[in-house]
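Students often ask why we bother encoding 3D structure as a string. The short answer is that it lets us treat folding as translation between two languages. Here is a chain of 307 residues written in the first language.
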Amino acid sequence: MKNYGEIGEENKTIQHYDGVDCTSYEISPENFSKILNASLASLNIHTITTLNEADEKIIFDPLIHLIIGGQPGSFKSTLTRNLIKIAGGINISSVTAASLMGVMDKEGNFTEPLFWQARDGILCFDDWSPILKGGTDTKYMDSLLKFLEDYAFTKKFVWKNQSFKIVDEKNKSNMMVMEKGLLNVHCKVLLIANTMRNFIKKKEVSVTYEALLSRCLFIHFNPARSAVRSYIDGKTQFFRYKKIKVAKEIKVSKKDYKVIVDYIFSRDMSLANTTRTIGLFVRFYAVYGFHDYDLYDEIIRIRNLRG
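And here it is in the second language, the structure alphabet:
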């Protein structure tokens, strides 16, 4: 079995990207693998539910979306392509609101939405380099954010004589219906992006990007030179893949939910980080079935770097 290489341990002279020193937010190889494996496993969970102290039912989106940042030449694209080989999905290098939600030309030829093409797999933005402020790419970001809220969208086309219904044979909850030019799509997609942007220290992002970042876990990927050499020689992988069996419907006990909430509120975090991190830890607990406090602490440390 191939081993996985260390991340960042002997790479001190080049631990910079996007003009910022990144040594303060390295993540251990063990936790890096745990995060990736949990993210892939989350694709197989349909719902996560729990009860709060008032016995009110809470439903969590099970998917653990990721943004992987790193310097040029750190094999980020290779890593994400390998994730797609494991879980399925598509890898794209450019994106528009139209491509995400489907395109129809003047002759009525329909190109399926990227969301649909990636259903039950990974939608990977490769070498993602968004314009952080005042750019024209906020339209597709709005479409992406709305989709991630409930994994569905509706779009009207000028061409009115198109009608069809497609139900995914593997997962019948995935459905694409066109009726007289009105397209309705419902499907589950895991977002994983790799980027040279340093979103931890970049504070000039727009509200739209802040909203996306709050829904994703940003992790830094900085393999050591020895790990890169071992990978090139075919001796190691950048993470240790482990298939995790999960139930489709997971109920987190009221007691364990309280453990998560109490633990997060015992730490110094902003309000925005607090609420999003609660949901994130519930997802990790649902995947692994126990409280991994070492992983919790590392995620809190990384998320706190954004304030």
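Translate back mentally: The domain at 3-304 is CATH 3.40.50.300 (Rossmann fold). Keep this in mind for the problem set.
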